[in-house]
């Protein structure tokens, strides 16, 4: 006897799904992609993303429904999608290239279609959030238009509708991959997406079961309620397991995403150290020439050219090639950084370059927005890169003389430092310094002897450096000789000479090493200031200086360390008398500081960190990327695992019954359950022989007779007969699966039809209850 297999509820390319199927697929598609839009929020943090998400998801849903109801060919659906993308793309994703905010400019269309290919790479090389800067909303538009469209088309017109759940998973992983290193609600969005997809799968199963019951003319009252209850239980189990795993595994503060491995547009290590050329600005031919015009900066502000925090024994540089230094990472920034990222009162400052500054662009405070005032402003703006850690900017390719630009800045309250006496070392991470001049180590130990607090030690050492030092650039005949440079040999000579003679290059470098010796993270800042007055100021080349910045628990503090210009004392003809350190009997003896090579590296040094084995580093990187996918797939697969375990437990319980009659009835019930799982519509009120006729296997008819005899015959069956029944049941079950495809076998294995309660699911006949 042959029974027609019921049709799928999902529909196909040649059929139109029922309204209930259309509604559930549409609702869950919109919910899933709304969650992905939330995952995109940390990238943009702008109202334009909300507008784009609403319009893109709505348009994609409308196209998919129209394609399904109208039975459009694939080329028609593709053409409609491209047309909608062209019409709404520029106003939504490139709002700066529109007329009246609606009509696209030709340049806007060019940027729109270029952004489909190039926008992804630009997005991972720019500082976040990007807002509506240039065409960086194009990747979000592509994701939120194409993603929902594919999801709904696969669910309504695909041959395998279950694969529609994979599209939101891929979209979610894409949003994470192009997002920030610091995750925003990673567990919440993951669980929300997994819950939505699980509910969708439960709704699809309910629709499919309803069609099957309708095809077999079986009473369907209560079937939907039972399906929903079972799906809810499975969902609670899966959600509880996922929440437990998420609670045990704390998310990392920084995750590995595409922007962590993307090649940066600017590497400061390829540029010469700006501090090495410091002495050149004091050449008499250029010293009195204008270098920078500043308008709008308050009095006391400092204009920074570059911040240098790594030292290789020859020069101080920006960033480090030995460790991963945040100060060496320069990225593009959007048109304006939002107030929640950069809080504080903003000031607009205009600067004009009157002298070549190389690639470095003078700035002050923290830059919130930059505007280039030039004919080629767009090209120059694209070359602007910024490091928020140090507040340093650069123009890739060099800053032209005569360039005028405006900066919206937030001035740091710690730029003008109070005293350092009560300060403690801060948490800032800076590249380690391999070696310090021995004379400097001895000098610091002598100056700070008897002082316990690190802040007081640092303040005392810097005051002593200013008091004992003399300023000389060594370029005029009436100045004391002073060699340029800040290598180990030069600083050894600088601190060991009597008197101490040098300029800001040597003073700032020495002060930075002193701070490191005392445990304070430090860096050198090259620039101008503090400004003597507000308003418009013209700074000369000779106004350039360098100062020290130290990290304390209150933040970075600026400290001027250069001595004032004064006459050098006459040189004593006799040999200097060696200074003997007095011993204080009330204090314990001071231990001699260990040699440099015997000292433990300071906590701030990172260059000697043990490197992880490359193989395990690769494994960890892969796990970080695949972790969210594994979590989602595990949560989606957990209901299937529960179904398989329930069926396995049921079969084992029936096979191990102590009563042979119950074992025989269990074997028969195992055959009928297998028939229902493969899709056969067994009548709910049929006899065993009628059910065997529907199953259509000769062995099934024999099993039906044996089961009837076990219930109604006066003699009791034995265990050998029960064993033969189970062997025959295994054969019937295998024959039912043999003609099925691999996909249909998987569907039967995870089907819940046999787990539901039917009218004849449990009844008492001849005093024996069926298992």
Structure in a nutshell:
The chain has 771 residues and is an alpha+beta fold. The chain contains 20 helices and 20 strands.
Report on this structure.
With 771 residues, the chain is of the alpha+beta class. It has helices spanning 19-44, 47-70, 74-93, 106-123, 138-157, 166-177, 186-215, 223-248, 258-261, 377-382, 438-447, 454-468, 488-496, 504-517, 614-655, 660-677, 688-695, 698-712, 719-737, 742-749, and strands at residues 98-99, 103-104, 290-297, 303-308, 310-311, 316-317, 346-353, 360-361, 366-373, 384-387, 392-395, 404-410, 469-471, 500-502, 522-528, 535-540, 544-552, 555-559, 764-765, 768-769. A 5-stranded antiparallel β-sheet has the order 9-12-7-3-16. It has a 4-stranded antiparallel β-sheet with strand order 4-15-17-18. Strands 8-11-10 form a 3-stranded antiparallel β-sheet. Helix 1 (19-44) runs antiparallel to helix 7 (186-215) and helix 3 runs antiparallel to helix 5 (138-157). It is elongated and about 130 Å long. The model is unreliable at 1-14, 216-220, 579-609 and 758-771 (pLDDT under 50).
Beta content comes to 5-15%
Q: Report the sheet with the most strands, covering strand number, pairing sense and barrel closure.
A: 5 strands, antiparallel
Task: Give me the number of helical elements.
Answer: 20
Q: Helix- and strand-based class? A: alpha+beta
Mean pLDDT: 79
**Total strand segments:** 20
Query: CA-to-CA gap between the ends?
Result: 27 Å
Q: Which regions have little confidence, pLDDT < 50, spanning 5+ residues?
A: 1-14, 216-220, 579-609, 758-771
For the largest sheet, list the strands in their spatial order. Answer: 9-12-7-3-16
Please state the CA-atom Rg, rounded to the nearest Å: 38 Å
Indicate the overall shape.
elongated
Helix content: 40-55%
Transmembrane segments: 20-42, 49-69, 75-94, 136-155, 162-178, 184-203, 224-250, 615-646
Domain Protein-glutamine gamma-glutamyltransferase TgpA N-terminal: 32-392
Keywords: Membrane, Transmembrane, Transmembrane helix
Protein name: Transglutaminase domain-containing protein
